[in-house]
């Protein structure tokens, strides 16, 4: 099961097809608007559908608390959890009692979970067919092993910064591609830090021996 999570956090949606530049907001203005949204979004919950490059789909609930906290709670039969605690991302596979952990900054998700990150240095706007849709591709040219993430936003009055995150595609250094589509996005609800705690299955395994 771990391979599905790796592709996710190691990922353009159909909305990101080309459009003449005259119908688009300027790249600088678009990047500024996306940065404003990420800084304004204190918390978000949503349902997600994850699809890997082989077409396998998993669903679950996403919770984000800025800065740096994220939780992917997968459907029950997946028995998989991904949690970010503000510093590191942890992938837990309860089927095989396996845990892997690495710094958030080494993941494409750093673009989403670090609202102070300067998108003008790491992001470029991807033209879309719909002027109400903004798409940004973020990568670190000095760290290609960290992968690439392409995030898609829809303009929505009343949402933080006037945008709503529709999903993203992540691509790791081994070309493992995973797409996330979001629905039922809700912002600003109180989210406890304990939401991002997790049980270590390795401890249970050791106790049984």
Written description of the protein model:
The chain is an alpha+beta fold and 209 residues long. The chain is built from five helices and eleven strands. The chain has one domain: outer membrane lipoprotein receptor (LolB), chain A (Clam). The protein has an eleven-stranded antiparallel beta sheet. The longest helix is centred in the N-terminal third of the chain and has 14 residues, at 27-40. The radius of gyration is 17 Å and the shape is globular.
The SSE order reads: HHEEEEEEHHEEEEEH
Shape: globular
Number of helices: 5
Using only CA atoms, what is the Rg?
17 Å
Span between N and C termini?
A: 24 Å
* CATH architecture call: Clam
Give the strand line-up of the largest sheet: 6-5-4-3-2-1-11-10-9-8-7
The low-pLDDT segments are 9-23
Main sheet summary = 11 strands, antiparallel
**Average pLDDT taken over every residue:** 84
- Briefly, what CATH class? Mainly Beta
Number of strands: 11
| Percent of residues in helices | 10-25%
Based on helices, strands and strand pairing, what is the structural class? alpha+beta
- Oligomeric grouping of the chains: single chain
Strand content: 35-45%
How many structurally independent domains? 1
- CATH names the topology as outer membrane lipoprotein receptor (LolB), chain A
CATH superfamily: Lipoprotein localisation LolA/LolB/LppX
